[in-house]
Specification:
By secondary structure, the protein is an all-alpha fold. The chain has one domain. The protein contains 11 helices and no strands. α4 runs antiparallel to α5 and α8 crosses α11. The protein is globular.
Amino acid sequence: MFSRFSNPAKFEALAKGVGPFVFGVFVVFAVIGVVMGLFFAPEDYQQGHSVRIMYVHVPAAWMALASYSFIAAMSLVGFIWRHNLADMAARSAAVPGAAFTALALFTGAVWGKPTWGAWWVWDARLTSVLVLFFIYLGYMAIWKSVEDEARAARFARILALVGAINIPIIKFSVEWWNGLHQPASILRIDGPTIHVSMLMPLFALIIAYMALFGWLVLSGVPQISSCGVWKIVICARPAVRLFNKRSLRKNPMNELLDFGKYTPYIAAAYGASAIVIAAMIYQRWKKLSKARDLEQRNKQQS
């Protein structure tokens, strides 16, 4: 199966056929997850409405680990079978992986302030996830700074495989060291400890983030430029203002979107997630449109 699609032409044909479906899955489940998480899921008896941040924080954290695990697996394949496509797939996963890690750190800080009373603590899991973010940056820096692609691929593989040691550290940090994070509450032998009314929006957004990651990798997402991000930030400002507490007083959806003292934190978490995801999609569509224009010009010239 892998050898069949190791041919770039066949993989490109696969990506063009599967890509729109995968992106559609992302859109559908993202809408379902956000609507259920904000409007239908109950508030927690201890954390109140701030628990709604969980629906964007946990999927981002999961995808931060899954993305790096994918990079490490593709790097191993590149070492063993010398497939250039494996290196391309690992490289394509680096930017969305770093973006998910940044989102996990940011939404975690926003969630931690009303829950723990602090934006940041040097908890074992927080620190190891921060290390993961720096590993992502180092991985991308290798591809950017080393001109010879063969050498860059070799160095990137080594870093990816060495950095994979951090994945089990992140996963089991709560069990190995006493920290502020709670133990696993979803993937447990005796079943999840979260009520189904909270699990449904959580799983919906996990599926959405997985589909987004799959679409970005299939289409080969480029590194996000600061210009592109700022364009998205400017365009997203009206949407973020919808969650602003001041605008909620004049908004007819006041009763639906007013979460009391937790409103600014929820707005920051969902707003940041929307901006980062929109930036990645915008950059990908921008590159795809340029590729289509170039293909049409080549056809006209021929």
